[in-house]
Amino acid sequence: MHILPRLYGSTTVLDCQGSFDAGAGRVLHACVHTAISDGCEHLVFNLAEMNFSDSMTIGLMLLIHRDFETFRHKVSLLQPQRLTKNALESCNLQSIIRIYETEAEALAHSLVPA
Question: How does DSSP classify residue 45?
Fold first, then answer.
């Protein structure tokens, strides 16, 4: 998995590309740690270019969300693949982690207090 961070004020968009496999968790964790160190208040995972993700991906996103929520910060998903989105919705997890279809919507959410 390849991750490219983009900063927009206190929002960090992580463009995720490729497959989420066992080694990807370490890479993702390092990017999240850097975002927190940089003062990130809203973390957006852009999943549009992910060609594979599984339940491990969802579990990791929930753990990251929990950590961010401690500081009243937000985590959102942008354009998850159909299977990932269906899994989130079947467990009603979209009420915990917001899902956006456009980056503009996700960035506008950054302006709303947590």
Answer: E
